[in-house]
Design a protein that fits this description.
By secondary structure, this protein is mostly beta strands. The chain contains 2 helices and 15 strands. The chain has helices at about 10-15, 140-145, and strands at about 20, 35-45, 50-60, 65-75, 80-90, 95-100, 105-110, 115-120, 125-130, 155-160, 165-185, 185-195, 205-210, 215-225, 230-240.
Length: about 240
C-alpha cells in the first residue's frame, strides 16, 4: 500500500482505534448505546492541533448478524476523519471497517486469518489490502477495554492491526492503580492503565478508565511514533449522551 498523507497518520494514531488479534475473554453484550465526546490536543513538534472526537455505539445488524456499529468522528483544522467499525455483538470480533479522511478511503473486511479490502486515493488510484493476521481480531480498543475484567495488577496481551501502517503490533495492557480523575464531564473513580509495546523502549500510553463496568475511557495520554514525526496526544472526556428510552 502506498503511504498515506501525513494528515491521516497522526489523526488515526491519536484516535488509537485499533483491532486486537489476541483473544482475551470479552462479552460485548455488556456495552450500551451511547455517544462519548472528547477534547483532544495533538502536540506535534511544530504545532498543536486541537480536535474534537466523538465515539458512538449503536446496536444494529449487518449481513443478518447482530453487531455494534462504532462510529468515530474527529474534527480539527486538519479536516474531518470518519471511521465506522462493525463488531459482532457478542464477542466484538470485527467484520468490516472503513476510514475516510482527506479524500483517502480505506475499506476492510475481517476474517479470522486476514484483513482484506482496498485503499482509494483522490487521484483515482485503488490499492488492494491483504494482510494476514496471526490470530482472529477482536475489534475497537476502547470497546475491548470497556468489557475486560480489569482489576489492579492485571495484565492483558494484545496484538493489533494498524490500518495506516498495514502491520500488526503487539501491546501489553497493565492495570497499575486506582485514581480519581477530574474531567469536564465530571469526576470519575478510575483504573490507570499502561499500554506499551513490549518490544519497544518508547513511553507507555496512559489510559484512565472507569472502575465501574463498562470501563470506558475518560482520559488518555499517548506518544506518537517517530514515523509520524513524534509528538504527544492528550484526550479528556467532555460529555456523555445516552439515547432517550
Amino acid at each position: 500500500m502506498r503511504p498515506t498523507t501525513r494528515r491521516l497518520l497522526p489523526l488515526s494514531a491519536a484516535a488509537f482505534t485499533i483491532a486486537a488479534a489476541a483473544n482475551p475473554a470479552v462479552d460485548g453484550t455488556k456495552l450500551t448505546e451511547q455517544t462519548r465526546t472528547y477534547r483532544m490536543a495533538v502536540e506535534l513538534p511544530e504545532e498543536t492541533v486541537d480536535m474534537t472526537t466523538s465515539t458512538s455505539w449503536t446496536r444494529t445488524t449487518r449481513d443478518r448478524h447482530d453487531v455494534w456499529l462504532v462510529h468515530v468522528v474527529n474534527d480539527s483544522s486538519l479536516g474531518r476523519m470518519v471511521e465506522d467499525i462493525y463488531l459482532r455483538r457478542d464477542d466484538l470480533l470485527p467484520v468490516h471497517r472503513t476510514v475516510e479522511q482527506a479524500g483517502v478511503r480505506l475499506a476492510m473486511d475481517y476474517t479470522d486469518s486476514a484483513v482484506q479490502g482496498q485503499a482509494s486515493f483522490p487521484d483515482g488510484q485503488h490499492v488492494p489490502i491483504d494482510v494476514p493476521l496471526s490470530a482472529p481480531a477482536i475489534g475497537h480498543m476502547e470497546s475491548v477495554l470497556a468489557v475486560l475484567p480489569l482489576t489492579p495488577g492485571s495484565t492483558v496481551e494484545l496484538t493489533t492491526f494498524e490500518p495506516t501502517m498495514q502491520m500488526e503490533r503487539r501491546w501489553r495492557v497493565v492495570v497499575t492503580q486506582t485514581e480519581s480523575t477530574a474531567t469536564p464531564a465530571g469526576t470519575f473513580e478510575t483504573y490507570r492503565l499502561e499500554i506499551n509495546d513490549p518490544e519497544s523502549t518508547g513511553t507507555p500510553g496512559l489510559y484512565w478508565v472507569t472502575r465501574s463496568p463498562p470501563h470506558h475511557t475518560v482520559q488518555s495520554r499517548t506518544t506518537l511514533p517517530d514515523t509520524f514525526g513524534g509528538g504527544e496526544v492528550n484526550v479528556v472526556l467532555d460529555s456523555v449522551e445516552t439515547p432517550t428510552p
